[in-house]
Every structure is written in C-alpha cells, then in structure tokens.
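Quick one, T. Sequence first:
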Amino acid sequence: MYLTLFNLAQFVILAWALLIFLPTWRVTRWFARSAVVPAVLALFYVVGIVALISNAGFGFVRDFGSADGVAKLMAQRDIALVAWIHFLAFDQLVAIFIYRDNLHHRYLPMPVQSVILFFVFMLGPVGFLAYYLIRWARSGSPGGRTAEVRP
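Structure tokens:
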C-alpha cells in the first residue's frame, strides 16, 4: 500500500511543471489558488501515517528524539515512503506561498521565480531561503510588504 501511495503522489510533478514553466497560465493560477495539490498529498500522507500507526502503534515516535533514531526510522522502506509524501506536501506548500506572494508583490521577475521554485523542488529550504532573502532585500523588511490596513 505504501508503494501505491508513493506512486500516486508522483502526480505532483505536473504541478511543479506548471509552477516553473507556465507560471502565468490561468490553470496554474487556479491550482495555486486552490492548493488542491498539497491537499491531495496531505490526504495520501494521512492514509499512510494511519496505516503505519495501525501496524506498529505510536512507538516509532520515541525514535524522533535522536539522530540515530531518525536514521533508523528512515531506513525502513514504508516509513521512508510516507516521509517522502510529507516532504512533497510541504515543498508544494512552500512553492505555492512563494508563487502567490511574488504574484501579488512582484519581488522578482517570473524567470527568476521559476529558478527559485526549481530550487524549492530540488532542495526545499534552499529555495525558500533564497526567496526569503530576495524578498527581504527588495522590500526592506523580513516580513515583506504588507497591505495597508484601513480603519
């Protein structure tokens, strides 16, 4: 079952292709606005994690407290496959955040955004950090530009 979830989650490559190669297409905007892709990935993750807990109980949680414990967990195929779906879901959320934020504020041109999103896809936190630093530099604030609040 875990392999099936892993294989089903591979549809995410289409969402990445849209965000990176067709960022202004209305279909891409719809996918980003709806966040349906990370929602589906989250559903796959829930199915996988419920199955893991049903099979092994909550005992694996104790292994999160040490590097050796986490390495032991990730060495188990089923846990690694479910963890991969977790990574896919959160990388997609980060990509959608960057996409929406940049579409609204235009901190960087679309081709640069596409490069940043590629880094999010391949190296997660590296892409986020690159966007965050550029956004900070361009806006003058670590929080970026904010909309004015009207009384």
